[in-house]
Amino acid sequence: MSTLDGRILVTGGAGFIGSALIWALNQRGHSNIVVTDLLGADEKWKNLVPLKFSDYVDAVDFRRSVAQNPAAVGRFSTVFHLGACSATTEKNAAYLADNNFGYTKELAAWSLAQGARFIYASSAATYGDGAQGMDDRSEEISRLRPLNMYGYSKHLFDLHAQRAGWLPRIVGVKYFNVFGPNEDHKGDMRSLVNKAYQQILTTGKVQLFKSHKPEYRDGEQMRDFLYVKDAVEMTIHFAERATNAGGLYNLGSGEANTWLTLTRAIFTALDRPAEIEFVDMPEVLRGKYQYFTRAEIGKLRESGFARPMTSLTDSVRDYVRNYLVPEKKLGESSDTPIGG
Which end of the chain lies in a sparser environment, N or C, as judged by fewer CB atoms within 10 Å? Predict the structure, then answer.
C-alpha cells in the first residue's frame, strides 16, 4: 500500500537527486510536497522552477521547528531525507557530523514518532575501498571503513539506526555513481558526463585520471554508473510498493563500467570522435580513490523492484541530447521516458 497519498516531505529538494525525485513524483500526479533545502549562492534553485510542490521551507527553519514545535510543521505520510552535504572532499568534520548525522537522527526519530515512512540517503561511500565487500545484506556494518569524512558521516547514522532498532522500520538507500540532469550546481562533485561535456565544448577532448595501481590500466578503473531517472524510481519504490521493506539497500545498475566506456559514450552521443588525455591523479586523492565499485542489487530485486535498468549508452544519450545540449532541467519540455 503506497504511502504517497498524504503529504510528502523532500529534504534537499532543490538538489540533484532531490529535485529529480520531485520530478518523478510529479510524473505520478503527486504535488502535495513540502520541499526543504539550503539555497545558497549557487543556482540549484533553478531545479525547482519547473516542478510542482505545495511549499518551500528553509532547512534551518524546518529543523528548528521539528526540534521546538513539531506540531507546527504538521504530519507527513512519507519523508524522503536527501538533504546532506554530499561533497566527498569536504574537510569540516564537525559540520558533516552535525548536518549528515545529527540532523538525520532528529528527523528519523520525528518521522517514526508520527508513523511516517522514512527513506533516507545513506551512501556507497560507506563501503570505503570495497575490501569488506559491498553487500547490503550483511548486518555486520560496523566492519566497514569509509575513506572520507562524508562516507563516515553517513556510516555513523547507519550504525545509530541499527543500534536504536530503527533499521527494520526505515530504509537507507546507498546510491552508487549517480549522474543525470539537474546536477549543474554541484561544481567539482558533478559527474564525469557533465564535466566531460563542458571539456569537449571548450577543448574538444576529455581528461581522465591515470591509474596508479598496476592491475588497472589507465581509464579502466571501474564504477557502477546509475542514471538519476533510475535512481529515483528505485527510491520511490520503497514508498509506493515495498512499504514494508526495511534496512539498507544498494541502488546501482548492478554493472561496473570503465571510465573509458563512459567517456566514449559521451562522444558518441555528440557524434564526435573520442579524444581522451590521461593526467596524473592528485596526491590528495590517491589514498582515497575507489578503483572498483559495483552494486549488489539482489536485495533490491527481491523487494519487488522489477523495472529494467537503463543501459549506460541510452542513459548518456538521453542526458546529453535532451538536457545538456539544450540546457534543460527535469520538468521542462525536453523530458523523455527512461531510455528515450
Answer: N
Q: What are φ and ψ of residue 329, in 5° steps?
A: -105, 160
What DSSP state is assigned to residue 292? B
pTM for the full model?
Answer: 0.95
CATH number of the CATH domain containing 132? 3.40.50.720
Contact 103, 67 (CB under 8 A): no
Residue 164 within a domain:
yes
How many structural domains are present in the chain? 1
Report d(CA 254, CA 290) in Å as an integer.
Answer: 16
Q: How far apart, in whole angstroms, are the C-alpha atoms of residue 35 and residue 147?
A: 31
**What local confidence, expressed as pLDDT, does residue 340 receive?**
39
Interhelix angle 228-240/16-27, nearest 10 degrees: 60
Note down the domain range covering 89.
8-180+225-254+291-310
The residues annotated with a catalytic role in the active site are 150, 186
Residues 252/206, Cβ–Cβ less than 8 Å? no
